Amino acid sequence: MQFHKDKIKEKILIIDFGSQVTKLIARRIRDLGVYSEIITPNELKKLKRYNDIKGLILSGGPSTVTTKKFQSVPKEIFEKKIPIMGICYGLQLIAKIFGGQIKSSNKRREFGRALLFRKKSSILIKNFLDSKKSVWMSHEDAVIKLPKNFKVIASTKDSKFAIIENTKKKIYGVQFHPEVTHTDNGKQLFANFLFSICNIKYKWSVTSQKKIIIKQIRNIVKKDRVICALSGGVDSSVVALLVNKAIRRNLICIMVDTGLMRKNEFKHTYHIFKKRYNLNVKLINSSKFFLRKLKNVSNPEKKRKIIGNLFIKVFEKESKKHKNVKFLAQGTLYPDIIESKSSTGSKTSKIKSHHNVGGLPKKMNLKLVEPLKDFFKDEVRILGKSLGLVKSINYKHPFPGPGLAIRIVGNITAERVKILQEADNIFINELIKKNLYNKIWQAYAALLPIKTVGVMGDIRTYENICLLRAVTSEDGMTADYFNLPKNFLDSISNKIINNVKGINRVVYDITSKPPSTIELE
Ligand code: XMP
């Protein structure tokens, strides 16, 4: 089901060769007010109309052009007078197609930051590269001989051809990743490509899509009823408000209390949607059921699968109570889809199976309505704001579908859930009080599956370790730990230990993503 793609006059197509960060290219381009879509090389082959396409970007990916067979693009696309930019594998592919040489070699591989030096001026690097700057590299193969009619714009110590161009054909290539935040000001490079090379004029914005989305939901759903899994997070809340605007009383919002939510969260959400927005909300308390099924389960993927399946069961049961329910509305986002499986059928490898993605319609016999599946989190917040969603929900930190289950490392018990809810509540409230909450992308407390010795008063204790995590991020794909002030850490550690029975040690997680993930499981 495709939403909000009508009336787009100018777009950039991103050809996905399977990089983990392909979606970030779309992100950067949309930040610049330009609509972009990601398609597979196969979809590109089948494409018939090119008139609304103002530029093509070939993404990075795990393939290599040094073997006989490799993923490619039809040569004709280079004859259509559409500007093309290759990133990483995309650059190597361009070089290969035009007769350059590429080699896989330990000497030339680069992972992480590299210093880029300017060799020649170019419209592509205006205000991006004056003389040198830090960029993010992630490649084993490298171009060793440039094709005819291509010039070098910039190099690093190990990559002679870090930026290349063929101005006549408007073909460009960058070996590094301007889409990741570790490349300084990568957005400027995209801006140069879009506005100076592709000559994009039309501005696209998330809010301009609101009316279109609502109308499309109405057209798709017609007189049938829709069930919405409302968790109180920004995604499902925005979905509920969008569907409500489209079909009003034919929307049934179901809140399943798994017992794995943050302290008082469900009551707060229920009250807001029932009283303030007057939505048709049903609250189902399944906490005992979930806890029973999770007993003695410590494997993170098993936890996710169990919770996902129980959700389906509860929904199936509930949907049968209402007539004409044909649709399930979900707050699935773009990044959920990437890390679970590739939405484009490309080679992006699976990191975690997010419980709200995949498999639902077959089992439930309901069609999916996923109006946010092409949006990133902050785009959803823009939509939420324009729908009048209360700030406490619109700017709430992301919370995973499996809830506290994946923040209690190891076995889950009612007691451990209670301990964690208390600690988390103290942590989050303190962040809000000290005006730190809105500077952080996501913060939470977790329980580790080990006990350690402590001393409280004159008594030896043997209790849980509470781990605190706070990260900054743009979209959850990469993250850095937040530098909490020392006095905050001192006082939060005290507050948690003094107020939560069962915790005698507090630690702060100082890893970024990658190499860690945001959640512990
Ligand atoms: P990770 O831990 O993969 O998390 O770095 C990235 C973002 O996704 C959230 N997350 C989930 N959300 N179901 C969800 O709906 C899940 O199973 C799940 N696992 C992680 C996580 O909270 C972070 O915002």
Structural features, described:
The chain has 521 residues and is an alpha/beta fold. It folds into 3 domains: 11-197, Class I glutamine amidotransferase (GATase) domain (Rossmann fold, 3-Layer(aba) Sandwich), CATH 3.40.50; 207-394, HUPs (Rossmann fold, 3-Layer(aba) Sandwich); 407-508, GMP Synthetase, Chain A, domain 3. Helix content is 31%, strand content 24%. The strands form 4 sheets. The protein has a 9-stranded mixed β-sheet with strand order 2-1-3-4-11-10-9-6-7. The protein has a 5-stranded parallel β-sheet with strand order 14-13-12-15-16, sandwiched between helices. The longest helix has 21 residues, at 300-320. The structure holds xanthosine-5'-monophosphate. Xanthosine-5'-monophosphate (XMP) binds next to loops. Xanthosine-5'-monophosphate (XMP) binds at residues 304, 339, 352, 354-356, 398, 400-402, 442, 476, 513, 517-519.
Which tags fit this structure?
single chain, GMP Synthetase, Chain A, domain 3, binds xanthosine-5'-monophosphate, nine-stranded mixed sheet, Rossmann fold, 31% helix, 15 helices, alpha/beta, five-stranded parallel sheet, 521 residues
Brief summary of the model shown:
By secondary structure, the protein is α/β, with parallel strands linked by helices. It has three domains: 11-197, 3-Layer(aba) Sandwich (Rossmann fold), CATH 3.40.50.880; 207-394, Rossmann fold, CATH 3.40.50.620; 407-508, GMP Synthetase, Chain A, domain 3.
DSSP helical segment count: 15
The gyration radius over C-alpha positions equals 25 Å
Tell me the helix content. Answer: 25-40%
CATH superfamily of the largest domain: HUPs
